[in-house]
Amino acid sequence: SLYLILSTMIPGAAQNGKPFIRSGQKKRKVHNKIKARFKLQDSKIIAYLDEFNVHQSATQAVGFSGWVIGWSAYFKKKLGLQTNALLNRFENEQKSQ
Fold first, then answer.
1. How far is Cα 75 from Cα 8, in angstroms, rounded to an integer?
2. Which contacts qualify for 7-14: CB closer than 8 Å, 24 or more apart?
């Protein structure tokens, strides 16, 4: 197995040459700088880990309330549950195809 470490940004639409996504209820621009680590085996990704500033992302996506609670363990747990649910849905859709 091989570890591949990349410094990248979230892929998305480009505006002024900067990748961003739209997030939150108001679909505000969020520009994340992400460090991603992939573990490859037989040319397949078998593990993935990323690191980014959750507080900064929450502030950009939600505004003032994101700035207030984006650092908290409650917010990070809620975000983790939400993203895991989206990942599970995606994986189930892939299996059914």
1. 24
2. 7/33, 7/34, 7/35, 7/36, 8/34, 8/35, 8/36, 9/33, 9/34, 10/34
Predicted structure pTM score: 0.61
Residue 95 to residue 90: CA distance in whole angstroms: 9
In the chain the first and final C-alpha atoms are separated, in Å, by 28
Tokens at 42, concatenated: 């037989």
- Chain segment 30-76, per-residue pLDDT in tens: 877 778 788 888 888 888 888 888 898 888 888 898 899 999 999 89
Closest CA to 70 of 85, 87, 82, 57: 57
Where helices occur in the chain by DSSP H, the ranges are 54-62, 64-69, 73-95
